[in-house]
Amino acid sequence: MTQQAEASRPQTPLHDCLRRLLDGPVALDKRALLGTLYAEVTRRETLAYTAGWNDALGSARRASRRDGDA
What we know:
The chain is mainly alpha-helical.
């Protein structure tokens, strides 16, 4: 899935994701639980980082256009 599509997907709150992992039908051992948790947190951090860069690039483009129009 592309980052654009991933970012537009509705987000499950991290708390709900943790509850689903802990209370799921299959008991995970500690190593598997930590691995799954690490992957989820890393994915969310990547989406936040990408969104921040997209916002910054959009702001820079708008500023550049304003400077060009002046």
